[in-house]
Write a structure and sequence with these properties.
Strand 4 and strand 5 form a beta hairpin. The mean pLDDT is 90. The chain has a 7-stranded mixed β-sheet, with helices on both faces. The protein has a single domain, classed as Rossmann fold, CATH 3.40.50. The chain contains 8 helices and 9 strands. It is of the alpha/beta class and 190 residues long.
Length: 190
């Protein structure tokens, strides 16, 4: 599955990975995650994508974003948009799919293997394109949650599917008590 001499890059869809871990009942220890994939190959880059609420003076995920940036992750953020839906509920929109796709396509000529941490079926064409360029693609998500967090099309397209639950002992830690504001900030940005 992984070869020690292959050049690796990680692409983490932050809200998607957070939701998958939450569905499985554990938090991700990002220091352990980076260490694990450095062990599996030559890790060139680890990208983390998330939208941040633009109007808040303090974003609940800002400490995580700052920690990741300081600890070797390439952070890709953009302002999330807040709106009220037809039922009067406050919603946040901050899709990072385009940014992740562009970065993966640009890096493809320089890597042998890309690990995508997302179950979003919108990434299937990206995986297919990367494979046409000779890049192997592993996808990390879960089929063990109810409902499964990975689209069937994405799982089938990937060269390798890694069940997030199987990584729990290596990269997981018990979930922390999360404030409602932080939970909302991590919620899957549409």
């Amino acid at each position: 599955m992984f070869y020690k001499d292959e050049r690796l890059a990680l692409f983490i869809d932050g809200s998607n990975l957070y939701a998958a871990g939450k569905a499985l009942g554990f938090d991700i220890d990002y220091k352990l995650l980076r260490t694990e994939f450095m062990r599996r190959g030559k890790l060139l880059r680890a990208f983390y994508y998330t939208a941040l609420l633009e109007n808040d003076e303090y974003s609940p995920i800002r400490p995580l974003v700052d920690w990741l940036h300081y600890n070797g992750y390439s952070m890709v953020t953009k302002p999330a948009k807040e709106y009220t839906d037809s039922q009067g509920r406050r919603k946040v929109k901050g899709n990072m799919d385009i940014e992740l796709t562009v970065d993966a396509m640009e890096l493809a000529p320089h890597v042998d293997h890309i690990v995508l941490f997302s179950g979003d079926g919108d990434f299937r064409p990206l995986v297919e394109s990367l494979q046409r360029q000779g890049v192997r693609v592993s996808v990390v998500s879960t089929i063990r949650s109810q409902p499964p967090m990975i689209s069937d099309e994405l799982r089938r397209q990937a060269d390798n599917f890694i069940e997030l639950q199987d990584l729990k002992d290596v990269i997981g830690r018990p979930p922390r008590e999360v404030s409602p504001e932080r939970e909302e900030a991590y919620a899957d940005h549409e």
